[in-house]
Design brief:
alpha/beta; 10 helices; globular; 7-stranded parallel sheet
Length: 324
């Protein structure tokens, strides 16, 4: 296949590009580098542009004629979305509309979208299956859910093929260490725990210690970024083979608490991780764990890497960055 990867200079997008190339596919990266890194573009030609620039994106599709698109380009901070919802609806909704219109005009048949478990909001039961009614509680989740609605409407009107992969908490880095998680600012738990262990920040804040979980801290389903990359490739291959349009959960189906993450990093680093107990943050569910049975059935996919692998790969990447 020849695949255009929007946001291919970012964290998950670059890992998808690497996996695509290793599987023998051709890769074209489309990214505006607002949050991505030019040095992460290693596995194919680079088109510099914003997804909201439909003319520019159409030109990219016309030049390379990809068989499909894997779409990672999006704003993805929950807290920021509450403070600046316009940015999220402009980039996530408006940008995706621009991509869909360009696909329609240039005859590109299929797209796999990077979705999110944030579309579920605060679910009434865990593990969370796709049958759980979507009920996002922040603009980020709402923007991603509306993206899925646009996909369905374009499929009806223009026979577009699509899948949205609703994954939980991405973690880890490539086993070779050449690409990894580099956000500015960094808000994700595992990198920040490692920053605390490396002395880059003073301590890790634990937001809530009185949740109804075994150790009182929030539990989340962490999935290795390389497992995510494999799933996106499987999804596009299935679509191009005539597979059904749908949204699927991706996760390990196992939860890890904040304290478990901190303890795991401490063991790898060989040192204590300084922590501070804080009050709960509004809107944080106690437990978010995926039911990924449908992805196993539809894509013949399951997560292969466990939490220990995620932490070890991430630690190798961040320790090398600190040393550099």
């Amino acid at each position: 296949m020849r695949i255009c990867v929007t946001g291919g200079a970012g964290y998950i997008g670059s890992h998808a590009c690497k996996a695509l190339a290793e599987a023998g596919h051709e890769v074209i990266v489309y990214d505006n580098l607002s949050t991505g890194h030019r040095r992460f573009v290693r596995w194919g030609p680079f088109c510099h542009g914003d997804i909201r620039d439909t003319v520019r994106f159409r030109a990219c599709l016309r030049e390379f004629r990809p068989d499909g698109i894997i779409h990672f380009a999006a704003s993805a901070y929950v807290g920021e979305s509450v403070m600046d919802p316009g940015k999220y609806f402009s980039n996530n909704v408006g940008g995706t509309l621009s991509i869909l219109e360009a696909m329609r005009d240039e005859g590109c048949p299929a797209i796999v979208v990077s979705g999110t478990c944030a579309v579920y909001g605060q679910p009434g039961a865990v593990p969370i299956a796709e049958t759980c009614p979507p009920n996002p509680i922040n603009p980020y989740g709402a923007s991603k859910l509306f993206m899925e609605r646009m996909l369905a409407d374009f499929a009806t009107a223009h026979s577009l093929r699509w899948m949205s992969l609703r994954y939980f908490n991405a973690a880890g880095s490539s086993a070779q260490g050449e690409i990894g998680e580099l956000h500015e600012p960094e808000t994700h738990l595992i990198p920040r725990v490692m920053f605390a262990a490396l002395g880059i920040i003073d301590a890790i804040d634990i937001f809530g210690t009185d949740y109804p979980t075994p150790d009182g801290t929030c539990v989340r389903d962490y999935i290795h970024v390389e497992d995510l990359a494999r799933a996106h490739i499987r999804a596009l291959e299935r679509l191009l083979a005539g597979g059904e349009n749908m949204a699927l959960n991706l996760g390990t189906e196992r939860g890890a608490s904040v304290r478990e993450i901190i303890q795991g990093v401490a063991e790898i680093a060989g040192r204590m991780v300084p922590c501070r107990d804080r009050e709960r943050r509004s809107g944080d569910p106690a437990i978010l764990v995926a039911d990924a049975a449908r992805a196993r059935e539809v894509l013949d996919w399951s997560a292969q890497k466990n939490l220990s692998s995620m932490l070890q790969d991430a630690w190798s990447f961040f320790a090398a960055q600190k040393g550099a």
